[in-house]
Design brief:
By secondary structure, the chain is an alpha+beta fold. The chain is built from ten helices and eight strands. It folds into two domains: 143 residues, no CATH class; 110 residues, DD-peptidase/beta-lactamase superfamily (Beta-lactamase, 3-Layer(aba) Sandwich). Helix content is 31%, strand content 14%. Strand 6 and strand 7 form a beta hairpin. It is globular, with a radius of gyration of 20 Å.
Length: 294
């Protein structure tokens, strides 16, 4: 989002709109009193909630919307139900797959911490940290290019269909050719996130999921956030889709993205509460309580 003037940019950064719709995932909600679903007035946000209600069973079965201003929650509403065949009403404690928000909340946050610690240089070539990232012009690709989706990499590759192991998938990504010179073109690329995930794993010496649990999720009490759910959480998960392409079943508690197991871009699983804590880190003056290198 681009605003005119510093004040506009500040306000844009301070207003967090968190919307999770018709996706699936799993995290473990904290112990809270049960929430009773009932009609209520949402004041100036009533048109937002009314619109979302109008889309139930059309665009999606159900969802949760939360709006925050600075450290205050100014709107929280749940609409609809879990699935077409599951009429239980969703609540703010329903768990969703956050898909590519993982790039922002998880991967980018870890990169910020590593920059703070002096362990990663945004303008250093990727090959300094990941020599396997090779091919024509790839010596010119920097960490900043990966973060800004300007590395020249393709948007995606059929990793789920073309490889059988994580190592093979990563090798396919690392050796894939650039489609344009670095820094000349913006292409939203899952491959950039996959490469960056390898960089942070190489720097820290820890697997990506464990790294985020230790450095990001646990320190700020994002206990409803994780990559792989236990079976005991299944009843709290909103299904993401009926997969008619790859797995041929209703997906509950597993991400819908076929290549998700290889990525730093997808898919963390969490409730709105956990997502809000992560977003507060991005607000000027937002809480980073307990964060590594805070």
């Amino acid at each position: 989002m681009r605003s005119n003037g510093g004040e506009g940019r500040r306000r844009a950064a301070e207003v967090l709109t968190l919307l999770a719709l018709a996706t699936a995932g799993c995290g473990h909600p904290r112990s809270v009193p049960p929430i009773t679903v009932q009609q209520q007035s949402y004041g100036r946000f009533e048109p937002v909630v009314a619109y979302l209600r109008s889309q139930v069973d059309s665009a999606f079965p159900g969802g949760v919307v939360a709006v925050g201003y600075r450290d205050s929650l100014v709107l929280l509403a749940a609409v609809g139900h879990y699935a077409a065949g599951d009429r239980r009403p969703v609540t703010p404690e329903t768990i969703y797959d956050l898909a590519s928000l993982t790039k922002v909340i998880a991967l980018t946050t870890e990169c910020i911490l590593l920059v703070d610690q002096g362990k990663i240089d945004l303008d250093a070539p990727v090959q300094r940290y990941l020599p396997e990232f090779r091919g024509p012009m790839k010596d010119q690709v920097t960490i900043r290019h990966l973060l800004t989706h300007s590395a020249g990499l393709a948007a995606d590759l059929p990793l789920w269909d073309s490889t059988r192991t994580r190592a093979a998938a990563l090798a396919m990504v690392d050796t894939s050719p650039l489609l344009s010179p670095p820094g000349t073109r913006f292409v939203y690329s899952d491959l950039s996130a996959i490469v960056l995930m390898q960089v942070v794993e190489r720097i820290t010496g820890r697997p990506f999921d464990r790294l985020l649990a230790d450095d990001v999720f646990t320190p700020i009490d994002m206990t409803a956030t994780r990559f792989v759910p236990p079976k005991t959480w299944r009843d709290q998960i909103a299904p993401s889709e009926v997969d008619t392409f790859f797995r041929h079943r209703l997906l509950i508690g597993e991400v819908h993205d076929e290549s998700a197991g290889m990525r730093g871009c997808s898919r963390t699983l969490r409730t709105w509460r956990a997502l809000r804590r992560g977003c507060l880190l991005r607000v000027p003056g937002g809480r980073r309580r307990g964060m590594a290198s805070a």
